[in-house]
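User: New here, please read:
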Amino acid sequence: MWFNPIMIWLARSPLHGLVSKQVMLITYTGRKSGQTYTVPVNYIQNGDQFLTTSYRQRTWWRNLRGGVPVTIRVQGRNLKAVAETVEEVDAVAENLMTLFRIAPQYARYYAVTLEEDGRPNPQEVVKAAQDKVIVHTRGIGA
């Protein structure tokens, strides 16, 4: 994406505070190429882990299957971490429910409405999960 280099620069700069509360960098090694890649991603923190979503058709997250060591840059700090993917639709939907409970404002980006009690509409969450994956990232020693 054309804006990735800009976001990477910004997240690494002294101006990182402009994006650090929503964007982190994940640096990983490609399984086939052996190259190092850095991807800016939106995240939600849930305790000691970071939840990230991606569209299934994107390919970057496939390098994280099975749990792999990564470096994340979050809120101006580099952390050693382990990232793993959640791909099964029911598990993705469950994780989306968690994400929307933590950050209900994100529901609209996934075409999910919130019920009167603030809970995400379960049927819409399952629909949203069809074309998404979740990446769980947890700092080592966290």
Notes: Residues 4-139 form a domain with the Pnp Oxidase; Chain A fold (CATH 2.30.110.10).
